[in-house]
Predict the structure.
Amino acid sequence: MGIHQTAIVSPRAVIHPEAQIGPYVVIRGDVTIEKGVKVDQFATVGAENTKVFIGEGTRVYPGAVVGEAPQDLKYGGEATSVTLGRNNHVREYATIHAGTPTGGGETIIGDHGLFMAYVHIAHDCKIGNHVVIANSTQLAGHVEMEDHVKVGGVCAFNQFVRLGQYSYIAGDSSVNKDVLPFAIAQGKYAVMRAANQIGMDRSGFSKEDIGAVRRALRIITKGDHTTIEEALQRVAKECGDSESILALLKFAKNSERGLAL
């Protein structure tokens, strides 16, 4: 328990007495570290002009960087932030950067996430709960991932891409369009190929709900229609009004980059 004698800690930092700060950790700027957090050796948290919050039970592994200034040439040292929720695992040499003033000023990560070695989460990203991102995957700025998204290793995401809840991205994919909730996407550039039936089943969705989502995604990705609007009208008419279908329709209608088709 406590702060190792070799750690360098900002006088502005607020560290819970039951947190652990390991050897040669550097904590800079306005940093709040909650109960049960463990920051391992040689990790870096914060920067001179950023504000970082790390929630209870989170672990930052050796060499990781949380809350460094964004990699944006327009950034001029303004006060921006990173919020990292509870019970996350930020593995070795992963990097999570603070937001930019023009992008809302904050990078936000929910609870119970796993961000494996060498993952990069850029400025102004919004990551939900129970998200898993495998090794060496790179997120550009402003990427949004809803709850329970799973991403394979060595993937790349264009800025402003959105991923819906329970979607799955196969490893070694490049994503430049939005991926619907409950969909599996793969490729360079990635396209939606099927419903994430196994993920939905493991998460307790009913057979009826899984079947409706599977039909909806087939209509959108393989249906005989001229426009996405026609496909969504058909989904609304033929696939019921469960919460999953409504979430899928809402996500599709709010897509600005277009869908990964």
About this structure: The chain has two domains: 2-142, 201-253. The longest helix spans residues 207-222.
